[in-house]
Amino acid sequence: MLDVTEAPTEAQFEFITFSAGDQSFCLEITQIREIRRWTPVTKLPHTPDDVLGVMNLRGAVIPIFDLSARFGLGETIDNERNVVIVAAAGGTTIGLLVESVSEILSVAKSAIQETPDIKSEAARQAILGVISVGENMVRVVNLDAVLDTEGGAV
Amino acid sequence: MSNSSIRDTFFEECEELLEALVEGLAAMEENASDMEVVNAVFRAVHSIKGGAGAFALDRLVNFAHTFETVMDKVRSKQLAVNEELMLLFHRSGDQLADLVEAARDGRDPNAESEAAILKELSAYLGDVESEEEIAFDAAPLAFDAAPLALDLAEPEPATEAELRRFDIRFCPTPALYANGHEPLLLFDALAELGTLSVTADLSRLPEFDAFDPEDAVIDWRLTLLTSEDETVLHEVFEFVDALCELEIAVSDDPVAAFDEELTDNLTSPDLADQGGGAALADLKAPEEAAPPPPAIGKSTAANAPRDEPRGPRPTLRVDLDRVDRLINTVGELIINQAMISQRIEELELPAVAHLTNELEAYKLLARDIQEGVMAIRAQPVKPLFQRMSRIVREAAEATGKKVKLVTVGDSTEVDKTVIERLADPLTHMVRNAVDHGLERPDKRGELGKDPTGAIRLSASHRSGSVFIEIADDGAGLNRSRILEKAIEKGLVSPEAELSEQEVDNLLFLPGFSTAAEVSNLSGRGVGMDVVKNAVAALGGRVSIASTPGAGTTFTIVLPLTLAVMDGFVISIADQTMVIPIASIIETIRPNPRDLHCIGTDGEVISVRGAYVPIVDVARNLGLSGERADSSGVLLLVSTEGQGLTALRVGAIHDQRQVVIKSLESNYGAIAGVSAATILGDGKIALILDPDELVKLTPAAIFLPPASSPRPELRHA
Fold first, then answer.
1. Same domain as B129, residue B8
2. A43 to B705: CB separation less than 8 angstroms, yes or no
3. Which residues form the CheW-like domain (chain A) (predicted)?
4. Does the distance separating the beta carbons of A45 and B676 come in below 8 Å?
5. How many whole angstroms separate alpha carbon B526 and alpha carbon B511?
6. Residue B158 sits in a domain of what CATH number?
7. How far is B715 from chain A (nearest CA, A)?
8. Chain A to chain B, count of Cβ pairs less than 8 Å apart?
9. Are B519 and B399 within one domain?
């Protein structure tokens, strides 16, 4: 689990950055199991729009979420560069459909800024912090918030 | 290792011990004079007591102790085993199992029955029992063990000229025992060096009244014939050096003298009674002379060298999750192998390529691995059957009937989950067999039958399925009464003409109970329909065969494993899905003439004169909002809530075995879908649950998900 407060000061964190819904996001590399090309999934009945369906990951059935739709940024548009990021947290493995993966980001802990004080509670929950890269701002995704379907779309 | 995990291990061991106990008691019933069997029972109880003592489970210790003491009297032939005592032993075994279970779950055990059995047990003990019993109860155990594994009987041929004879005097101090040392082990180590002869010097043994169990009073004289150096001998005693008096002397006497002495000993017919016997018996004595070691249950270890062959086969405890992960991976391997085969076929390589052979070998290997992995989950039905012997006993007691349980094929292996989930239905059926199946003893006598009724529980593998039969030699089903009752309850119409088998199957209808008076035992409102549903949930079925006057046999047929299921591969809207074959009664290609509308949305089909509602699967799953055209295939299913229903699906493509994958582990339960599977092309197909499917209504899809809460993803 990404822990922003307790890690040693000069430790470098590695993140994989990706875009979803025209925004830049990133996940800590230790949470990511693999990145796969998008292949059609098996749809599940009676599920919200951001649950795309299930995929076969070497014998395990894992659910695939549309990260953009999950964050209320609209459905991911079909694109050749679409990939599924397979991530694991708390014993659960899930797949996140994103528009494209960009790069690996290596930053010191100090480079991670707290999420600015925005109004939306849901958005604050979903984002652990932000990292500024050049002119861009990269949002650190809180995987737990994605997993927590009780809260509904964030 | 944390304390709780040690505790878990203890309870796991208890289960094995209880199993051994039940087994031993059953064997005692056959032949109560077989001391091996009696010993085995005693040891099981004793080990439970020992372990329970370590965890301060006082009630368990207390009960086991009383049980053990009575058992010990049987062992020492002070008490003869009769039918009554045997019954008490069985009940004590049951009670012990209850107490273990209660201790494990931290519940309060049933004090009433415990007290009653304790009282009965104590009645066999007389009044000689006192406090010292606990301290000394290991004594008979130690002394009845006659030959000990000391290599006396194997004088090594004195081929080496360098053989020397060492005379050793070994006088342990109490501190040696207090530090947990064990002379026997030292002697074992010496015996490995050459030919050893041991004599105990009992001269310091005090009168019994003056006996101090904490004192070390036995000295040892050892004669070792070895080619080793004296320093090697000292090394053996290295760790006890300061805790004993030790003298090692090289004897000038040639080897021959030793041989003579040894041979003398061996050929002496009085060996058992005189020197040798005493030495051997005394060899055990330090167990008692030494302060009781902190690890309770040690006294059973005294017998260990001799008992090993009788013990359980070595096993390995593995976390079930690990096995399931392995099964998953192997399942994937099989699919992967199928895909590779297919790809290579598509390449249309020239026939000379050896690839086909290798591929075939790969396929066989993969199947082998799969079978092997599946076998890990398989467990013998023995524990399940053993539980039934208790049920039979209790049921027989409650009904005043005499019943004998015969089990056949209890080494038949079945998936672990099947065993767990079969316990309740089987209990119910066994109770039924005793209560309804068997006649009363007096009536059996009139009929010329053995007054003791027999219930036969058997398990076997047949053509890829597991068959479990519960047979009684009672009166058989009273078909006219069943029919009468069914008509009375309105379950069938009075005009119906039913075959014998159809009448028998009425038993499985919900709300059916034939017992004229509701007995204490069965007829608690749980009918055979519950049994049927439980078995059906495991993918199996139950059938009945009955011969008037000769008895009734219930047969449960189960799939070998829960990981695999027979299913139809069907298409629904544009998706491929699987529906369990077990749930389908028949498939119908509907004739438009048989389809009728009811209201605006309802649709029924007439099947041999009855109107059966049609459920459109695609709509119920919310895959297509529009009403499907009347093409497609109807699958007739019998569901729990709605009776006969016809499911409309697009088409049936195939019938095959599919590997069942849980959806819940990574996502959550989805209404109408029981699980998922992976098809040959690597795609996931959902497995439908007809019972749930028909409960869904198309309208429900558009409701907010309040009624069906969104799946909880985390395992927490």
1. yes
2. no
3. 12-152
4. no
5. 8
6. 3.30.70.1110
7. 7
8. 94
9. yes
Q: Is A86 on the interface with B (CB under 8 A)?
A: no
Closest Cα in chain B to A52: B667
Beta carbons of A44 and B623 less than 8 Å apart: no
pLDDT at residue B457, as a whole number: 92
Domain that holds residue B53: 3-144
Same domain flag for B541 and B568: no
**Residues B714, A93: C-beta atoms closer than 8 Å:** no
Q: Which domains are delineated in chain A?
A: 12-111 (2.40.50.180)
**Intervals of chain B under pLDDT 70:** 1-3, 126-162, 252-313, 352-353, 463-464, 511, 513-526, 560-564, 624-631, 640-642, 665, 697-716
Interface subset of A 99-128, CB within 8 angstroms of B: none
- Chain-chain contact of A152 with B715 (C-beta, under 8 angstroms): no
Question: What's the pLDDT band for A17 if we cut at 50, 70, 90?
Answer: very high
Confidence at residue A16, expressed as pLDDT on a 0 to 100 scale: 93
Instruction: Tell me, yes or no, if A56 comes closer than 8 A to chain B by beta carbon.
Output: yes
Query: How many whole angstroms separate alpha carbon B182 and alpha carbon B172?
Result: 10
pLDDT given at position B400: 85
Q: Which of B319, B667, B697 should be substituted to probe chain A, the one whose Cβ sees the most A Cβ atoms within 10 Å?
A: B667
The answer to whether position B530 is within a domain reads: yes
Q: What is the pLDDT of residue B201?
A: 79
Going by C-alpha positions, the residue among B387, B481, B401, B390 that lies closest to residue B434 is: B401
Q: Which of A118, A47, A111 is nearest to B709 (CA)?
A: A47
Contact B344, B359 (CB under 8 A): yes
B128 in the same domain as B165: no
Tell me, yes or no, whether B312 lies in a domain. Answer: no
Among candidate residues B123, B144, B165, the one where a domain is terminated: B144
CA pair distance B615, B643, nearest whole angstrom: 12
Judge if B337 and B395 occupy the same domain: no
Beta bridge pairs of residue B404: B454
Q: Inter-chain contact B713–A55, Cβ cutoff 8 Å?
A: no
Q: What is the CATH number of the domain that holds B16?
A: 1.20.120.160
**Whether ipTM exceeds 0.85:** no
pLDDT band at A143 (very low <50, low <70, confident <90, very high): confident
Residue A97 binned pLDDT confidence (cut-offs 50, 70, 90)? very high
Question: Per-residue DSSP letters for A87-127?
Answer: EEETTEEEEEEESEEEEEEEEEGGGEEEPP--S-HHHHHHE
How far away is chain B from the Cα of A64, in angstroms, using its nearest Cα? 9
Say what the pLDDT of residue A98 is: 92
CA distance B12 to chain A (A): 27
Which residues of B fall within a CB distance of 8 Å from A154? none
Distance CA B674, CA B660 (A): 9
Give the model's pLDDT for residue B541.
79
Q: Are residues B550 and B402 in the same domain?
A: yes
**Who among B329, B666, B714 is closest to A61 (CB)?**
B666
Cβ pair B671:A46 closer than 8 A: yes
Residue A11 contacts B where some CB pair is shorter than 8 Å: no
pLDDT given for residue A85 in this prediction:
93
Put simply, whether A94 touches B (Cβ < 8 Å) is yes
Question: Are the Cβ atoms of B684 and A41 closer than 8 angstroms?
Answer: yes
Instruction: Say whether B332 and A54 touch across the interface (CB within 8 A).
Output: no
B390 and B490 belong to one structural domain: yes
The CATH number linked to B467 is 3.30.565.10
pLDDT score recorded for residue B117: 83
Q: How much is the pLDDT for B274?
A: 44
| Residue that finishes a domain, picked among B379, B399, B425 | B379
Q: Which residues of B489-498 are buried (b: 16+ CB within 10 A; e: fewer)?
A: eebbeeeeee
| B551, B437 Cβ separation under 8 angstroms | yes
Contact between A55 and B684 using a beta-carbon 8 Å cutoff:
yes
Cα dihedral A64, A68, A69, A70 sign: positive
Percent of chain A with pLDDT over 70: 88
**Residues B217 and B289 reside in one and the same domain:** yes
Count of structural domains, chain B: 5
Chain B residues whose beta carbon lies within 8 Å of the beta carbon of residue A93: 666
Structure tokens at B208: 């019994």
With b for 16 or more beta-carbon neighbours within 10 A and e for fewer, the B572-599 pattern comes to bbebbbbbbeebbeeebebeeeeeeeee
